[in-house]
């Protein structure tokens, strides 16, 4: 593998990051950690030092939570039109800095620049989408009944904690922060320690856009210290988390004593089911894209491919050829399709499944090895001759690794598809309309795409079942989390309560 020299803007940005310490942003000011500690951030292309970040603890979280608490009354009272205007300014500034954001995300995470170029566009869309709903966020229902008028309204729940993951962190941060701000909540953001760079840039952008001091706060650090303190802090009324299912379980436990509302977007082992009557060329394109794009590091990736037995061999033959031709390389090279995995620990986890697959009796049809001796590069991998009870078919690997399982008929396909702890997404390929509806309704997942890859419509609900999470994002579903619904009943005709204790 030959690395492509970084373009000049990337070199300039890397030098800037190398010289700069990433600080917390609390109460409108950039601050070091109370304990003075930092942690190193490495680029996955060669695991060299990229930058250093402040390592927050409970004291930093307390300062941030207090700042969010103090800022909440004024932000809650701010007219929705004013919040809309500010969020539109955030979107515009994101677009102005789109190239910088894409380069930073690629260097920080190893994601190919071809995909990160759209991350800023998507983030700006998120801010504008929820900004447009800020004015109507408090709207409720009129519920008249005999003698009474009941009506509902919504109000922001209070300061919220947002804990974001290391895969496509910029877009996912906007996906959580934009509706929180639009609803009138203030925010303490704790990004993943493996990818803190663009969280810092987003805080800069929001500050420049005029978001008032204390409305948005950023604390870097580890989940065991800063994250735990955030989930336990009494000023924080809700936690929105994206990450591993095991961590989501811990967050629920940590927030229990303060009765926190939690929204958990967790892992997935998502099936893509291909029937013999499908458009097989399109199904092949979608299956490859939804697993190997973004380095296989996304929760909605189609990591299990279920293929009807009658077409299995021919489909897998074409699949193997496509996987073999995927271009792995420097994430800043526009031709690269798969870059290095984000961190040495994740790299080692993914590579461990190569031996696990062989031990369980599966075939490594393509890949199953690292590339080179420098950086976290893995050859795109395809496992065949697999069964549903194998670890490679049950566990979330979170890398460019696809497991193929044959099925006999519709009932067998549904059994295999549902035979995992997760239930985030599913993909179905068939030209039988009746089967499409029947099968989709039988899948135990929160989101299903029929004859398509993951194409998001922002008003639609996003979230999973089983070990894949609690709650839904998107449109009003996001406001249902960040806001409380209040019912007000007005007596219209002189209704009187029954008298007790009178003569």
TrEMBL record:
Q: Sorted alphabetically, which Gene3D superfamilies does this protein's record hold? A: Aldehyde Dehydrogenase, Chain A, domain 1, Aldehyde Dehydrogenase, Chain A, domain 2
Keywords in alphabetical order: NAD, Oxidoreductase
The record's Gene Ontology biological-process terms are: 4-hydroxyphenylacetate catabolic process
Active-site residues are: 265
Domain Aldehyde dehydrogenase: residue ranges = 30-488
DNA repair as UniProt keyword: no
Superkingdom of the source species: Bacteria
Question: Which molecular-function annotations from GO does this UniProt entry contain?
Answer: 5-carboxymethyl-2-hydroxymuconic-semialdehyde dehydrogenase activity
Q: Which Pfam families match?
A: Aldedh (PF00171)
Q: Which NCBIfam families match?
A: HpaE (TIGR02299)
Q: Which family does it belong to?
A: Belongs to the aldehyde dehydrogenase family.
Q: Read off the PANTHER family from this record.
A: 2-AMINOMUCONIC SEMIALDEHYDE DEHYDROGENASE
From the Swiss-Prot or TrEMBL record, give the protein name.
Answer: 5-carboxymethyl-2-hydroxymuconate semialdehyde dehydrogenase
The species is Deinococcus detaillensis
The primary gene name is hpaE
